[in-house]
Every structure is written in C-alpha cells, then in structure tokens.
Amino acid sequence: MSKFRTLTLAVAATVSLAGCAGPNPRDPYESYNRAVFNFNDKVDEYALKPTATVYKNVTPSFVQTGVNNFFGNLADVWTAANNLLQGKVGDGMSDVMRVALNSTFGLLGVLDIASEAGLQKHKEDFGQTLGSWGVPSGPYLMLPLLGPSTVRDTAALPVDIYADPWQYKNPVNVRNTGTVVRVVDQRAALLDASTLLEDAALDRYEFIRDGYMQRRNSQVYDGEDGPKGKQKKAELEDEAVTPPQAIIAEPAETKPSL
Amino acid sequence: MKLIKQLIAVATVAFATSAFAATAPVANEAPDVLVKRISSEVLDTAKNDKEIQAGNQKKVMDLVETKILPYVDFQKMTSLAAGRYWRDATPEQQKALSTEFRTLLIFTYSGALSQVKDQTVDFKPMRASPGDTEVEVRSQVNQQRGEPIQLNYRVAKTDAGWKIYDINVLGAWLVEAYKGTFASEISKGGIDGLIKTLSEKNKKLASKPLKTAGK
Question: Kind and range of the H or E element at B135?
C-alpha cells in the first residue's frame, strides 16, 4: 500500500514536472519544493507517523491532552505578544489572562482552565503579524522537516523560534526530550486529517500547496477571506455567471443522474 | 356509514396537512437553517449508528447520499473548480466530470464522517441581507483536543431551494483547492485526461476500506 503510494507519488511528481505548462506564479520553486516535499514525506512515513500512531494508541488520552495543553500554554505567550503587535488589544489581553490562569490554577498549563472559562485560544505567529502589517506572503516554500511555508513566514521563523520559551529550558536533555514529545504530539493530532487528505487529493503536493496558501491568507485576516479572497470570489462568480448556457442550460437533463 | 366516510375524510385531510407540514419548511428554509439541520441530522446519525462507527462504508455512503447530496449543487461546484476550461468542455464531458468529482467528494466526505466521535458544531451569526441569493454560512467544529476547526459553506439560491456549492475547511475553500490540480491535469491531458484521473482515483478509493477514528 505505502509502496504503491510512493510509486504513484513519484510518477505524479515526474509527470507533472515534465508536463508543466509554465511555472505557477505562486510557486516558482516548484521543483525544489517537490523534492523537499518527497523528503519530508519519507521522514514522516518511516519515523514520525509510526511514532505518532503509537503515541496516540498507547498513551492515555488525559496524558495527551495534558501534553497538548502544556505546550499550547507556552505558545500562548508568543500568541499574546503577536496579538498585541497586530493591535488586537482585546485578543492580546485575553491571551495574557489565559497564560496567567493556566500557568497557575492550570498547574503550569497542563489543564486548560481558561478555555473552559470561555477565554478562546487564538493562535498567532510572527508571519501572521507581518501579514497583518501588509507584508505579502511571497512564493510558496517547502521547508525540510518543518513543512509548508512561504518566503515571508520563513523570514519570520527565527523570531518565532527565539520567542519560544521552551528554547530556554534547562537542562538541555529535558529541553530536547520535550521538543520531541511536542512534535510527536502535534503529528498525532493530525493523524486523521492526513488520512483524509490522501483520499481527497489527486496530487497531494498541489492540494496541500493550494490549501495551505489559502489557509495562511485566511489566518492573517482571522478567518475572513481578506482582500485577496474577496477578489477571488468575485472572479469565481464572474466565471459562473458569464457562461449561463453552460451551467443552467440542461438542468432537467442532468439532475436526475446527479 | 356516514360516520366512517367523515372519519376517512378527516384522516385524509390530516394526513395531507401533516405531509404538507413536513415538506413545506424544507422548500423555503433559510440557508443557515438548512445547513444547521443537515449537519445536526448527519452528526447525530453518525454518532449513534454503530455500523457507521465501525466503518461500514456502504452505510456511511448511504447517509451521505440521502442526507447531504440533495442539497449540494455539484454541477456548479465542478464548473467553478474547472474554471475557464468548463466552457470548452462538451456537455458530455461536463456531465462525466461532475459525476466523477461528485464520487470523489462522496468518498472524502464519508471518510470524514466515519471519524466523527465527540465533535459538536457551533454556528456563527449570519451576515447576509434578506435579498441575497448567495450567502456564506459560518460554523466551527469543536473537538476535545486542539483548536476548533473552521467550517464554512457557500450556499446559493436555486429553483429547487438553497444549495451548497463550496465548503471552507480551516480557511481553505474546497473549489479553490481543487482548481490548481484541475488546471494542471487539464493542461496535461485535456478534460478527458482529468476525467480519467478522477475515475482512477475513485476506483482506488472504492477498493479501499474506510479508516475509522480508532480508539
């Protein structure tokens, strides 16, 4: 099964590279990106996914929730800062409250009391902050091990890493173990989604790319489509409206079969 | 004798009105009410049906076919995903393309449904005016672990009532996500090439058992 998948992937990759009509403006580094994508896929297939699967099946679910909450709480510190940097004072203050509540009553973040108290999580990183300041995302970029990104978000990444409190955890062996657990835990949370993705995509690389670029844009505009998205929608509607004969012409004929 | 006739008459009227009452709200249901109704019906069934939980592919697909498909405009969805190439396609190609795309989406949706466990759905307030013929219904799926998943629907008014024609998961619109792949498949092998790729993908999915949420 997995061999077959690799084979189809490899074939799909070579075929689409060979038959490329011209570079996609959003993805000028496609051939590099595809190579990294395949590399990441191998790492995932042989190391990360099996580990995450075992973790998910073996670890009691309250431990998984605890691990997830603990690192989530650390991440909330930087989220709060980014919300404030973006001028979203309300969200930022609510995140500060979240960290304060969870770090004390939530036993260093293991319990997510704040969510239960109605303080919702809003994840923000520095790439989103740059985006909200008007920095365009730039082309798509696939990072080794870290996965999909854009040029802007890659430039923002060192700031995110510096701002991660866990990077300053001593001793080093505890820090490293924690980092591994964190990565495995995050992968475990995505196990169901990644199976779905394999089913839905004709070409996983393209599907992930096009989905990721849209999702990032939506994150920058906090779930709204943003100026770019609105324009896209108008475009779509335009296409739908202009050839009315094609779409609305034979509903009586096609509907029963649908 | 007269009494029986009257009884029958009353019963008929009662039956007719109850049947009418059952179908009437569906016909002129508001788009957000429609989406809310479908999603709660589907989620409830998926959560309570043991066979669906166990990954019975036929049952899941039946659920999708009966509860969701009548409210989805696949032709519009396919035409948007195919973009400018839709106009170049013959009616037969258009039909084949939307049939294959529909099948692929059924498989995907069935896969998603068989993973339903303890999720709940919250709907956000509508931002549409009464005269709108295209609206966006916004919701989020809450799960035990991790952040809520954003799930929005684009719904358009048709002669047969409101129909869903695009879904947004985690900020990405489905049609837009397929658009790139469709375009590159078409540039490689034309519309027929895309139809062929879709149908091969579907055959592969049909021969594969559904994966369930696990323990």
Answer: strand B134-142
Which of B197, B159, B186, B193 minimizes the C-alpha distance to B76?
A: B159
CB contact under 8 A, B75 and A196: no
Residue A139 is given by DSSP the state S
Give the pair of three-digit tokens for residue B182: 């469709």
Q: What is the DSSP letter of A27?
A: B
Interface test with A, best of B76, B87, B181, B187 (most A CBs within 10 A): B181
- Which residues does chain A have within 8 Å of residue B200's beta carbon, measured at their own beta carbons? none
Say if residue A90's pLDDT is above 90: no
**What is d(CA B102, CA B83) in angstroms, rounded to the nearest whole number?**
16
**Region of residue B163 (left: phi > 0; alpha: psi -120 to 50; beta: else):** beta
Which of A21, A195, A196 is nearest residue B187 as measured by Cβ atoms? A21
pLDDT recorded at residue A165: 83
3-class state of residue B139 by DSSP: strand
Strand partners, B172: B169
Residue A160 structure tokens:
């995110």
Q: Which helix (H) or strand (E) holds B140?
A: strand B134-142
Q: Please state, in angstroms and as integers, the Cα–Cα distance from residue B127 to each residue in A32, B32, B134, following that order.
A: 42, 10, 11
Question: Hey, what are A120's tokens?
Answer: 């919702």
Residue pair A129/A137 in contact (Cβ under 8 Å)? The answer is: no
CA-based nearest residue in chain A for residue B182:
A202
Say if the Cβ atoms of B111 and A243 lie within 8 Å: no
Q: Who's near B181: CB < 8 A, 6+ residues apart? A: A201, A202, A203, A206, A207, A210
Tokens coding A77: 């510190």
Q: What is the mean pLDDT of each run of 10 residues along chain B (215 residues)?
A: 60 51 56 88 84 80 86 91 90 92 86 77 84 88 75 88 88 87 89 92 80 47
Output the CA–CA distances (angstroms, integers) from residue A55 to A22, A50, A52, A189, in the order listed: 43, 9, 5, 10
